[in-house]
């Protein structure tokens, strides 16, 4: 009588490996998505700070903010607008694009450098949030 040795994995062993991979993925994927959003969100404060400098330069040349536009060339994840524009006031706004999975993000700054933000649904009353934890 000849014995043949079997090689390979049993169904139970394969199912245990699949369960472990699923558990690790359920922990890793949301963390990675937050990391990606954080990187994408960095566009808005950088562009708003740049637009604010341009607005002040515009004011120095024209003695008014009326007519100033904020059109960053590298805008990919946000739409930019100048609101509440008068001779002496303005509010720069960056609104996240839903098509880029940034719909819950928004940043503003005005002529007095007062900042507000919404970072993935978390509101920041006096600063630009840099994470979903609510820290500036």
Give an overview in words.
A hairpin with a 2-residue loop joins strand 4 (115-119) and strand 5 (122-124). The mean pLDDT is 90. A five-stranded antiparallel sheet has the order 1-2-3-4-5, covered by helices on one side. It has two helices and five strands. With 136 residues, it is of the alpha+beta class.
Describe what is shown at a glance:
The chain has 136 residues and is an alpha+beta fold.
Indicate how many domains the architecture comprises.
Answer: 1
Mean pLDDT: 90
CATH class: Alpha Beta
Q: Which spans have pLDDT < 50 for at least 5 consecutive residues? A: none
CA distance, first residue to last residue: 75 Å
Strand fraction: 15-25%
Number of helices: 2
| Lateral strand order in the biggest sheet | 1-2-3-4-5
For the CA atoms, what is the radius of gyration? Answer: 25 Å
State the secondary-structure class. alpha+beta
> Element order, helices and strands?
HHEEEEE
Overall outline: rod-shaped
CATH topology: Glycoprotein, Type 4 Pilin
Number of strands: 5
Largest sheet: 5 strands, antiparallel
Percent range for helical residues? 25-40%
What's the CATH architecture? 2-Layer Sandwich
